[in-house]
Structures are given as structure tokens and as C-alpha cells.
Amino acid sequence: MSLCPYCKEEFTYVVSVGVVVMGHDTHNHAVSYNCPHCETSLSVTSDHHEVQRDMITAVVAAIKDGSARGAV
Ligand SMILES: [Zn+2]
């Protein structure tokens, strides 16, 4: 059983909301896990799907770059 530390309601799921983490000159996509009752953010973590997409895009670009140079 999980209890929200803010509204003290029990929850069995959270609501995920996409957020952006701003740095000095960077920004990263992240996910905020919010209480389904009071919508308070309980936790924020990196957006794993966004990280996967970035990695796949980088790998595909590297493969295409390598095959363009005949290195495959
Ligand atoms: Zn709550």
C-alpha cells in the first residue's frame, strides 16, 4: 500500500506527466510521477523512452555514416 505524503490518500497507480529539466545550456526530457488524488509530484526521473529514442537515432546515424563511407 502506498500513501501520498501530501494528501495522505492511498494510491495504487501514479499519473505520469512529461516535463523538461532545464540546465544552464541544456534541457532533457523527464517524467514526473504524480499522485492521482492531489496531483502533487512524487518523483521525477529521466524519460527512458526519450533516452531510447536518442540512442537509436545516434546508432542509426552512425550506421548510415559508416555505410556512406563504405566502412560497414
Ligand atoms: Zn496526494
Question: Which helices and strands occur, and which strands form pairs?
Answer:
Layout: E1 2-3, E2 10-11, E3 15-22, E4 27-34, E5 41-46, H1 48-68
Antiparallel strand pairs: 1-2, 3-4, 4-5
Bound molecules: zinc ion.
Zinc ion (ZN) binds at residues 4, 6-7, 9, 35, 37-38, 40.
Task: Give a verbal description of the structure.
By secondary structure, this protein is α+β, with helices and mostly antiparallel strands. The protein has one domain. Helix content is 29%, strand content 36%. It contains one helix and five strands; from the N terminus they run E-E-E-E-E-H. It has one helix at residues 48-68, and strands spanning 2-3, 10-11, 15-22, 27-34, 41-46. The chain has a three-stranded antiparallel sheet with strand order 3-4-5. A two-stranded antiparallel sheet has the order 1-2. A hairpin with a 4-residue loop joins strand 3 (15-22) and strand 4 (27-34). The model has no long low-confidence stretch (mean pLDDT 91). Zinc ion binds at residues 4, 6-7, 9, 35, 37-38, 40.
What compounds sit in this structure?
Answer: zinc ion
Q: For the terminal residues, how far apart are their CA atoms?
A: 53 Å
Counting structural domains, the number is 1
In N-to-C order, the SSE pattern is EEEEEH
Strand order of the largest sheet: 3-4-5
What is the gyration radius calculated from CA atoms? Answer: 19 Å
What class, by secondary structure content?
Answer: alpha+beta
| Largest β-sheet summary | 3 strands, antiparallel
* Record field, number of beta strands: 5
What is the percentage of strand-forming residues?
35-45%
Form type: elongated
Low-confidence runs (pLDDT<50, min 5 residues)?
none
Figure out the total of helices: 1
Mean pLDDT: 91
State the share of residues found in helices, binned by percent. 25-40%
